Amino acid sequence: MAVDTFAYERQLHADGVLPVAGVDEAGRGPLAGPVVAGAVILPAEMDHRPFRDSKKLTAKGREQVFALLEDLQVPMAIGICSPAEIDEINILQASLLAMRRAVEKLSEQPAFLLVDGKFTVNMALPQQALIKGESKSASIAAASVLAKVSRDRMMADLAEHYPLYNFAQHKGYPTKAHKALIAAHGPSPVHRLTFRGVKEYI
């Protein structure tokens, strides 16, 4: 039987808790570029079925879901932590800070957060952390698509500024080709200097 990916939201709505925002991040694993979080509020009455885990969608599929979010004009926002911030406070704290920034930028402040992962966001808002939340909550899945598409676009932009590193192809992730480019050219200004695979070449 298919998982009801709107069950958490529906229960909260039934309890009079709304709006509910889903929150997720993209870019914890890369050696370069920012970590980007998305926050999305899906209205109670909408069809939530198009919103699935971004990792299970193709790049084209993610772009289609992103376009759908824009067409529906749902409240959504992104938050960003730079490579320098990641190096300063570590990737977990930077991810959670990016999530907080995304929530704070929403046009409508949520009454409750559904957060992907093991940790909640450092905000005075009721919230629930859901491990593998993208497969359990359509709101988190929508946030994951927003974060992933936004970050991929940023990496394509960085590829034009730093053409030696081919960011448009690997998006900063530690592929064999990316690691070879770091070894050949040293880190760029947007590499994460505390990460293994980069710090050896400083």
Description:
This protein is of the alpha/beta class. It has one domain: Nucleotidyltransferase, domain 5, CATH 3.30.420. Helix content is 40%, strand content 14%. The protein has seven helices and five strands. It has helices at 7-14, 59-72, 83-89, 91-104, 138-161, 167-170, 176-185; strands at 20-26, 35-41, 76-81, 112-116, 127-130. A five-stranded mixed beta sheet has the order 3-2-1-4-5. A hairpin with an 8-residue loop joins strand 1 (20-26) and strand 2. Helix 2 packs across helix 5 (138-161) and helix 3 crosses helix 4 (91-104). The protein is elongated, with a radius of gyration of 17 Å. The N and C termini lie far apart (52 Å). The mean pLDDT is 96.
Which key features would you list for this structure?
202 residues, alpha/beta, Nucleotidyltransferase, domain 5, five-stranded mixed beta sheet, 7 helices, elongated
List the helices and strands and how they pair.
Elements: H1 7-14, E1 20-26, E2 35-41, H2 59-72, E3 76-81, H3 83-89, H4 91-104, E4 112-116, E5 127-130, H5 138-161, H6 167-170, H7 176-185
Parallel strand pairs: 1-4, 4-5
Antiparallel strand pairs: 1-2, 2-3
Helix pairs in contact: 2-5, 3-4
Number of strands: 5
Characterize the overall form: elongated
* Number of helical regions: 7
Would you tell me the overall average pLDDT? 96
**What's the oligomerization state?**
single chain
- The CATH superfamily is Ribonuclease H-like superfamily/Ribonuclease H
Instruction: Give the helices and strands as they follow along the chain.
Output: HEEHEHHEEHHH
Give the name of the CATH architecture.
2-Layer Sandwich
First-last Cα distance: 52 Å
Q: Can you tell me the CATH topology?
A: Nucleotidyltransferase, domain 5
Query: Strand order across the biggest sheet?
Result: 3-2-1-4-5
User: What's the Cα radius of gyration?
Assistant: 17 Å
Strand content: 5-15%
